[in-house]
Each structure stands twice: as structure tokens, then as C-alpha cells.
Amino acid sequence: MAKLGKILVVEDDPHARQGLAELLNAWDYETETAGDGSEALEKAVAFNPAVVISDLRMPKVTGMQLLRLLLSARPGLRFIMLTGQGTIEDAVEATKLGAYNFLEKPVDPKRLQI
Predict the structure, then answer these.
(1) What Rg do the C-alpha atoms of the chain give, in angstroms?
(2) pLDDT at residue 1 above 80?
(3) pTM of this prediction?
(4) Which of 12, 15, 102, 104 could link 91 by a cystine bridge, Cβ 3.0 to 4.6 Å?
């Protein structure tokens, strides 16, 4: 049976990254993970996800930078931003840049609409 779609999970916390990937796999999505934004840029090219779920605050390439870079290359990509310490300003900026959703961590699975 075919998977529902491809999702790239970008999170620098290995436990959060693994937990989110396991949840999405249980929902029948094909997932790939990346530990930071620069790794995510490489994986996005090879994996070609329909959705990217990314942490906002990461080393090297931040979630906001990743959002800008990926949406400039693939305007139809759904991008969901996650944060543990985000502000209203971050949420507004992400939305203006084209984020599909902006959620607080820990993520409530009921709010994670793909």
C-alpha cells in the first residue's frame, strides 16, 4: 500500500526528531529526518518531500532561513514551523514567508494537520 506522502522532519533534538518521525510513520507517511537546516537542504533535494516540519531555532541554518530557501526553490511546499520558545513576531514572520502552520512544542498531535 502506498504511503500518504513524504515528510522531512528537521529538528536538532534527537529525541524530538525521532518521536515526530515515529508518529508520522504510524500515520502512514514516508519520513526522512535531518538534525539541522544545512542537512535538511541536502535531504530536501534527494527526498523531495511534500511537507517539511522544522524547528525554528537550530544551529547553522535556522528554521526561518530554511523556510526562505526551500520556499524560494519550491513555492508549493507545505512548511510547518515548530518552536519551544517562539514569539508572536516569529509566527507572523513565518506566516508572511509562506509557512503553512506555526506550532508550539511539545506538539499536540491533534494540532498537527498535514
Answers:
(1) 13
(2) no
(3) 0.94
(4) 102
